[in-house]
Amino acid sequence: MCRLLGVVAREPAALGDLLAEEIPEFLALSREHADGWGIASWAGDEAAVVRDVAAAHDSARFAAATRTELDSGLLHIRLASSGSPVAPQNTHPFVGPGIAFAHNGFFAPRDALDAVIPAELLATAAGNTDSERYFLLLRALLREHDPATAISLAAARIRARATEFASLNCLLLTEEALYAYSEEDPRSEVSKRRGPDFFRLRYHATADRVVVGSSGLPSAEAEWSLLPYRQVLEIHRSDLRVTIHPADPAATAA
């Protein structure tokens, strides 16, 4: 399993300054979630992505990346699922034209979505993770839907086609906004073993920034708002406006 952290700020600043309290906590989690890390960011109209298979707490590249100036970004640390190698092509975030995506959880089988991903997108898969398939399905849905609807539909199609899943938690970063989605199956082995809070996402808004993150960040546990399951959090880059989108009605029949 993995951990997620995202931020949208009113003014660009170094990532380590924007998340001065959260970065040390996130690095502490990387001692368990030690199978790579990645950061995607926007500053103005420029996007950047950096990834590494080293553990974030032991990576000079991660330390350097925290000096990147940005106004919005997502961070991912990976705990690889069984049978999914620690390799650059399996490291989040996955990127496409104008978007970056990171997933926390798993579904099985890994090819459950292959029949509903357009062939030309499926052919671009570089790794063997279920998470990359989630991303490719989302890219296909974004051709016809807004991001919040596309995320809801992608999650519904996983529920309909996978034989099992633990969590569909994800962050999606676009030029316009950062999106977060939270959903788990409490019957999964991971949820039973880790407990009912393991896959929760929480968010916190101030005048200068909005942050969203996985459980395990002590600063978030008590004071941040819980993102309800099957709802999409949208944080607008232009003005930090926060919108909560309920599950799209079409997603219940997907």
UniProtKB/TrEMBL annotation:
One matching Pfam family is GATase_4
Q: Where is the Glutamine amidotransferase type-2 domain?
A: 2-254
Q: Which UniProt keywords apply?
A: Glutamine amidotransferase
Keyword Ubl conjugation on this protein? no
Against SUPFAM superfamilies, the record matches this protein to: N-terminal nucleophile aminohydrolases (Ntn hydrolases)
What protein name applies here?
Answer: Class II glutamine amidotransferase
